[in-house]
Structure formats: C-alpha cells, structure tokens
Amino acid sequence: MRKILAAVVILASLIFIADPLTDIIWMRGSKDNYLYFYGGTLFGVEYVKAFEVPTFPSDPFLKFTGCDVDFLKAIIRNESNFRVHATSSTGALGIAQIVRSTAKWLKVSNPYNPISSSFAMCKYLKYLSKKFKSKTEILWAYHDGEGAVKKRGPSVVAKNYAKTVMHFYEEYRKKKKWDWFKDRVLLKVRFDYLPLFSYDLRFGGAFSLLGVIDLSCGYTLSDVQNGPFIKSYIRIFHDLAFVFDMEASKKYFGASFWDINRGIEVLVGSGYGKAKLQVGNFGMDLARGRISVFYRKGF
C-alpha cells in the first residue's frame, strides 16, 4: 500500500511540474529549414505538420479549482484554445497565457503546466472579484491589469476581449460542451543528402501527454542504418528531462536541458554518442560520429 501511495505521489508531482515536448514549444511554424556543413555541403529539410488531440479532460478537473468552470473554460479558449504549450511573442505562456512576472506573483513555477496554471488563474480571478463587481469588469482587469483599469478605464482591446470571452461563456453555459486540454501531435518528414557520401530519410511523429512523458518515433532509411527509432523524454522540470533513445539496434541514455530557443542534449550508449547544442537559430549536432553545424529557422 505504501509503495502504491508513493508511486501516486511521485506521478502527481511529475504532472504538476511537467511541460510539453521541447520540439513543440520551440516550433513557431509548420516547417523548419536546416543547412548543414560537414566539410562538404548538405542541405536538409524537415516538414512538420501539427494537429490537435485531446490529452486531458478539463470539465472534471477544473471543478477542483473552486471557480466557475464555464468561466475558466471561456478564458482558456480565448487565451490559448486549450493548448498547453502555447507561447506568445510577448512572453505569455501556457493555457492561461501567464507572463513570468505574474507567474512569480502567483507562485507558479511552470506556467506551461495546465494544472498549476488553472489553479493560479482561479486564484487571480478570485482576487479580482474582490475589486470588481461584474465578470466583464474582471475580464477588463485580467486583460489590461487592475491598476490600468482603475486609472484609465478599459482599453478598446480589453472591451473586445471581454466581449469575446463572455460570448464563449454563454455558449458553454447553454450547450454544456465537453472540452479538453489539448496538446499537439507532430508528424515529421526529414530528408538529408550529402552528395557521394550519405543520405538520411526520416519520417515519424511526436506527442506529449501533459508533458510528463514525451515520445518521438518513426522510421529511418539511410546509408548507415535502417529501421525504427523511438525517443522518450521523462521530464523532471520545465527545462530538464531524462532521455532514452533507441535507433535501429543501438540504445542511448542521457539528459536534455532545453529552453524555448536554446539548450543542450547529451546521450551515451551503444555505438557513437550523440550531442546537440543550440543557441537561437544556430547549433551543432553530433550524431553517428559526424559533427554538423546547422542553421534552423521556423516559419
């Protein structure tokens, strides 16, 4: 019984601090360009197609926050459309689109996590409800900030924001539509070709269940090795994960530390080791004993 209880506590802890797949967080568009240099010229292209799949039922869970479930869902739908990995250009993160300063104030260690973000959003709404009377006024303050609304009144953008959210709210109240927290599944096709030396065709997909365990899998055709591959991330924190990688008959173990556009991953095991370093759009990749320098840009 104690072992089962300990396992439940550990799993719950992982869920609370987990976040989505690194590739998904980083991805800004549906395609990536790669340009490699091996002492010759290799051009690689990776096509990435993303689509939504349900990973967590929101209705039963959101009831535990103590807030109006339909109201929370309406805000989440407008902020992120239930995408746990949502990242805006202004630095708003997760389903509630919380900026890091607000996350720090609400004591949210990982804004990407849908569980902690939902409780934090509820806490913030309860705070605003003590300052403002109606849901519309609360939404103005949620968007513009409490101080700005009190001093200057709501902006035009905040008014439109509140109008949209209230429309979703009434829709949920009437239809009682079942919604989900959604994560992304990626389909990937990658082709690399180095004249006279090598070719590498990879196709497969990636998905993340609340970011607790992230999986990437598919099949490789190349001059070096053919066969299936699978790569799993056991995420400890937002940036840190243990990694297990199996490609053809080789197995690798290691760790990955990755932020939105920078990071390092080091794997060791049978065959050659693997390592990747990226800062911004530039990086180095060591795989199968070859070192490549690449430029990667999503669009």
Low-confidence stretches: 15-33
State Rg.
Answer: 22 Å
Mean pLDDT: 76
Q: What is the straight-line distance between the termini?
A: 51 Å
Approximate shape: elongated
> What's the domain count?
2
Structural class: alpha+beta
Order of helices and strands: HHEEHHHHHHHEEEEEEEEEE
Taken as a percent bin, the fraction of beta residues is 35-45%
Spatial arrangement of strands, main beta sheet = 1-2-3-4-5-6-7-8-9-10-11-12
Reported by name, the CATH topology of the largest domain is: Porin
Helix percent reads: 25-40%
CATH class of the largest domain: Mainly Beta
Report the strand count. Answer: 12
What is the quaternary state of this protein? single chain
Main β-sheet, in a few words?
A: 12 strands, antiparallel, barrel
Structure notes:
By secondary structure, the chain is α+β, with helices and mostly antiparallel strands. It has two domains: 2-21 and 34-53 and 184-298, Beta Barrel (Porin); 55-180, Lysozyme (Orthogonal Bundle), CATH 1.10.530. Helices cover 32% and strands 39% of the residues. It has nine helices and twelve strands. The protein has helices at 2-17, 22-26, 58-62, 69-79, 100-105, 114-129, 135-144, 146-152, 156-175, and strands spanning 31-37, 41-57, 180-194, 198-209, 213-222, 227-235, 240-247, 250-258, 262-269, 274-279, 282-287, 290-298. Strand 11 and strand 12 (290-298) form a beta hairpin. Helix 7 packs across helix 9. It is elongated and about 65 Å long. The model is unreliable at 15-33 (pLDDT under 50).
